[in-house]
Automatic annotation (TrEMBL):
GO terms for biological process: L-kynurenine catabolic process. It comes from the Eukaryota. Homodimer. This is CCBL. Its EC number is 2.6.1.64, 2.6.1.7, 4.4.1.13. Residues 69-447 form the Aminotransferase class I/classII large domain. It comes from Mytilus coruscus. It catalyses: an S-substituted L-cysteine + H2O = a thiol + pyruvate + NH4(+). The lineage of its organism: Eukaryota, Metazoa, Spiralia, Lophotrochozoa, Mollusca. One of its GO terms (molecular function) is kynurenine-oxoglutarate transaminase activity. Its cofactor is pyridoxal 5'-phosphate.
Length: 462
């Protein structure tokens, strides 16, 4: 009998199972057949996956577990979702008389969920949304991104991607056979603490990436990892190019509720002439601090939503009914208290996160990093160039931030993310002098990080 190793790749190159929690510790005898089969031409992965094998979450999620590191890396809260949403999930699974809540629901989204999403987003989009035709549900915002890219983009199309970008945009576009054209946000301020608003697109550089072949632009607002909340004039500049080159805007807005200070989140879909060319994405995982629930939505005109639904119905068919029911009920409740800023989760979470953001910025400044203070989202970029740490060669050709982050995890037991993963190969140098911290963590977790920094600083003086 063949015993499969759950950690190492088994059989063929793309059948890699990485277990991040406990089972990685299980020691099993390995019968590896990797080499034997990889030489046989047909028993291997599809060519279109070439170059997409590395994944920053897989590597650094595992490293954090292996080293029992304090985790300010991968973006997830270390606290529970709001109790009322948990209660609704339990009720949907076990407390309801409706046995159908454990069966398949409508392919494109559970009716109760799309109805409440239409209510939530109609005022923000400045139009009355049709729940059945303007909204589609998939497995997390990842699933919605996949449906949008596979459902709307043809091989050979060009897709403009704003850097730094959520890492999956690049492989998704490439797997669809399209050609990514990258344009970076660049910090315009050269010294001192930065704000995410100091990261700007150069209008000339941006337009130079558009051509007759451009099918879409992908933006992330608020941006992961910078935390930038695009201003109205910045969105207008992007909107004007979308209209000039007649292309789609894929606007990933999963951090839409986490907006700090007096900043305002504006949906590009609400600008004149943009509704008909924009898909806007949201995520229940981000909205309700429940990243493991993996439920996302796309909002847009029926001519763009329909192809996404066609893709979804044949690849995924439908998403878990109890999760959709619980999220729907949760949103209904939040909508009913939306005028109570400190009670409604859609607004109270940002109020809770702001002091965490500020505490982290203080800790980072004290150790000598230069943080970019985010206007939105729950990540913080920090410039590490002043630390001048001589990282031992780890035998890879990876950018400096990858080496630094591995070192930090192994030596200081602190896990963070290397932002050059959010840049294409030619622009990795723009990301490698930073690291990304996640601050949607309990105060005690952030206090432990501060202790690590303090000990580190004290040891530097010795
Ligand atoms: N977009 C961005 C910018 C993200 O950071 C994430 C992280 N989860 C996603 C999309 C995917 O969201 P989900 O977990 O809902 O699939
Ligand atoms: N979106 C999360 C982040 O940026 C995690 C994504 C993932 O783990 N795949 O950290």
């Amino acid at each position: 009998m063949q015993v499969l190793n759950p950690v190492k790749s088994v059989g063929i190159a793309f059948a890699t199972y990485v277990v991040q929690s406990t089972s990685h510790k299980t020691v099993l005898p390995i019968i590896s057949c990797n080499r034997k089969y990889s030489k046989m031409s047909k028993l291997r992965g599809a060519d279109r996956l070439k170059g997409t094998e590395k994944n920053v979450w897989v590597e650094f999620g595992k490293l954090a577990v292996d080293y029992k590191a304090l985790n300010l890396g991968q973006g997830f809260p270390d606290f529970k979702p709001p109790q009322h949403v948990i209660d609704k999930m339990v009720h949907a699974v076990d407390g309801s008389d409706n046995a159908l809540l454990s069966q398949y629901t409508r392919s494109y989204g559970h009716p109760r969920l799309v109805n409440v999403l239409a209510k939530l987003y109609s005022p923000l989009m400045g139009r009355t949304l049709d729940p059945m035709n303007n909204i589609t549900i998939s497995i997390g915002a990842y699933g919605v991104l996949f449906c949008a890219i596979q459902g709307l983009i043809n091989p050979g199309d060009e897709v403009v991607i704003v850097e730094p970008y959520f890492d999956c945009y690049e492989p998704m576009v490439k797997v669809a056979g399209a050609i990514p054209k990258y344009v970076p946000l660049r910090p315009i301020k050269k010294e001192g603490v930065l704000s995410s608003d100091d990261w700007k697109l150069d209008p000339v550089e941006l337009e130079s990436k558009f051509s007759a072949k451009t099918k879409a632009i992908m933006i992330n607002n608020p941006n992961n990892p910078v935390g930038k909340v695009f201003r109205k004039e910045e969105l207008e500049m992007i909107a004007n190019l979308c209209k000039k080159y007649d292309c789609i805007c894929i606007s990933d807005e999963v951090y839409e509720w986490m907006i700090y200070d007096d900043n305002k989140h504006l949906k590009i879909a609400s600008l004149p002439g943009m509704w008909e060319r924009t898909i806007t994405m949201g995520s229940a995982g981000k909205t309700f601090s429940a990243t493991g629930w993996k439920l996302g939505w796309g909002v847009g005109p029926d001519h763009l939503i329909k192809p996404m639904q066609v893709l979804h119905q044949n690849c995924i068919y439908t998403c878990p009914t109890p999760i959709q029911e619980a999220v729907a009920e949760g949103l209904e409740y939040e909508l009913s208290i939306q005028d109570k800023k400190e009670e409604c989760y859609l607004t109270s979470l940002a109020l809770e996160l702001k002091p965490k953001r500020d505490a982290l910025a203080k800790s980072l400044t004290e150790i000598g990093m230069i943080p970019t203070i985010p206007d939105g989202g729950y990540f913080m970029m920090a410039d590490i160039s002043n630390l001048n740490i001589d990282i031992p060669d780890d035998g890879t050709k990876d950018p400096y931030d990858f080496k630094f982050v591995r070192w930090l995890c192994k030596e200081k037991r602190l896990s963070v993310i290397p932002p050059s993963a959010f840049y294409n190969q030619e622009h990795k140098n723009l990301g490698e002098k930073f690291v990304r911290f996640c601050f949607i963590k309990k105060d005690e977790t952030l206090a432990k990080a501060d202790e690590i920094f303090k000990e580190w600083k004290a040891s530097q003086g010795k």
